[in-house]
Write a structure and sequence with these properties.
With 406 residues, this protein is α+β, with helices and mostly antiparallel strands. It has helices spanning 6-16, 68-84, 104-109, 124-127, 140-145, 154-159, 163-166, 282-285, 298-322, 354-370, 386-402; strands at residues 19-28, 45-51, 57-66, 93-96, 111-113, 129-131, 134-135, 168-169, 181-182, 186-193, 203-205, 217-220, 224-226, 242-243, 253-256, 273-281, 324-325, 331-333, 339-343, 346-350, 380-384. The protein is built from eleven helices and 21 strands.
């Protein structure tokens, strides 16, 4: 199996194939595995059809282990770690909340990037930040971002190219719901196959101090408690608020299959195997246009799309290096499947790892820059507006002040 080179990738992006796909078979490192829970505390289970090696089709029970949205977030964080370690160079938009370090709350936040924000470079965090003393969306690249769309994606390529891979909707910008939308080009999810009925799980705790709920104590402000009634918080009638030791996390918890709401604790599932299916749509990338100096040229469009395809594969490969410890008691492992070009009923395998993918990004970006496309490798760093900083600080202080004991 040959390692992918830039010439082959360019031909694929130009129209030779519809997509790049990779399927990785995974096993649970542990007998049971715990999927994520959704509304109502339920697992996302469903029946799916799978094709056996003999060509027959079988209907099996499945459970979602990692959603498309979660996989995208994990890939973005993998790219950010690669960027911070110097292994990958690409444009990056960030807000520096730390400033001079005088505010401990803002210092704790530190730097926040478009790879971490829910709406990527269109998030309200960036809208409410400043560039050279002016609101970001009113000057420079931020103002140009207001006119971004699939047929005018150069500014996104310059600010946050990953948004063209994972998709975005500029609903927080000046156009509101009419803001630009770009669909996801890279879709990935992890599903467990041939799963059993949900198991059982107990919850308990043994207090080494052997404290029991046989004494009266009172609630104080700021998540504290006291024996002194005069220091206690008061209810609407002016009476001191009594609490039990268990409400401040002291004492034993009786072993139980049920939680405090009387519902069964989630007990995980067993499964035969899991699969990660990752698909990078080259057809979706071909819908994007990248004008330079107001002119749209096939060669610049092709160059930008090739960079994005390489960056999408880098996201998949760098996530492999991070591993698949999805949550507590949901650790998966498996040998990464082969990357394949898919198109017109044909499949062509090729080899690629994180280092080779990063090399492809650098090589493709150099060609794109040679055609006049912007690809800054230094981050564009904004600062929070005074109002945004105050909103963060006041909100967190109020949350801490009004938190209840326990």
């Amino acid at each position: 199996m040959h390692t992918l080179d830039l010439k082959t990738l360019k031909k694929a992006v130009a129209g030779e194939y519809a997509a790049i796909r990779r399927v990785t078979r995974m096993d649970a490192l542990g007998e049971k595995i715990f999927p994520p829970t959704y509304e109502g505390g339920e697992y996302a289970t469903e029946q799916r059809q799978v094709r056996n090696t003999d060509g027959t089709v079988q209907t099996v029970e499945t459970v979602l282990l990692d959603s498309v949205q979660s996989q995208a977030n994990r890939m973005e964080m993998a790219l950010l770690r690669a960027y911070d370690s110097g292994r990958l160079k690409m444009p990056l938009l960030a807000v520096d909340f730390k400033g001079d370090g005088s505010d401990p709350i803002l210092s704790e936040i530190g730097r926040l990037t478009a790879l971490e924000a829910p709406h990527r470079m269109c998030d309200a965090i960036f809208r409410d930040a400043l560039y050279e003393g002016q609101p970001f969306r009113t000057v420079g690249l931020g103002e140009r971002l207001n006119a971004a769309k699939p047929s005018n994606a150069t500014v996104v390529f310059e600010l946050c190219p990953t948004a063209l891979i994972f998709g975005f909707w500029d609903s927080t910008g000046p156009r509101g719901g009419l803001g630009a939308k770009v669909q996801r080009a890279l879709v990935s999810e992890i599903v467990g196959y041939q799963t059993t009925k949900e198991g059982k799980r107990t919850a308990s705790r043994i207090d080494p101090l052997a404290i029991e709920n046989n004494v009266d104590i009172f609630r104080k402000a700021a998540r504290e408690w006291t024996f002194d009634e005069s220091q206690a918080e008061r209810n609407s009638n002016g009476d001191p608020i009594k609490i039990k030791p268990s409400e401040i996390n002291h004492g034993n918890i009786t072993p139980s299959f049920k939680n405090k709401d009387g519902k069964l604790n989630h007990g995980g599932v067993t499964m035969a195997y899991a699969e990660q299916q990752s698909v990078l749509s080259l057809a979706a990338l071909r819908r994007l246009r990248f004008p330079v100096g107001g002119a749209i040229k096939p060669e610049t469009d092709q160059a930008a799309r090739t960079v994005l395809a390489a960056l999408g594969m880098a996201a998949i490969c760098f996530l492999d290096e991070d591993g698949y410890d999805l949550r507590s008691r949901c650790l998966l492992d498996g040998k990464p499947g082969a990357m394949t070009f898919v198109g017109r009923g044909e499949v062509q395998e090729f080899g690629l790892d994180a280092a080779a993918a990063a090399g492809l990004v650098a090589e493709a970006a150099a060609e794109a820059k040679g055609l006049g496309l912007p690809w800054p490798e230094e981050p564009l760093v904004l600062v929070p507006s005074a109002d945004l900083s105050r909103l963060v600080v006041d909100s967190r202080k109020r949350a801490m002040a009004t938190s209840k004991v326990g």
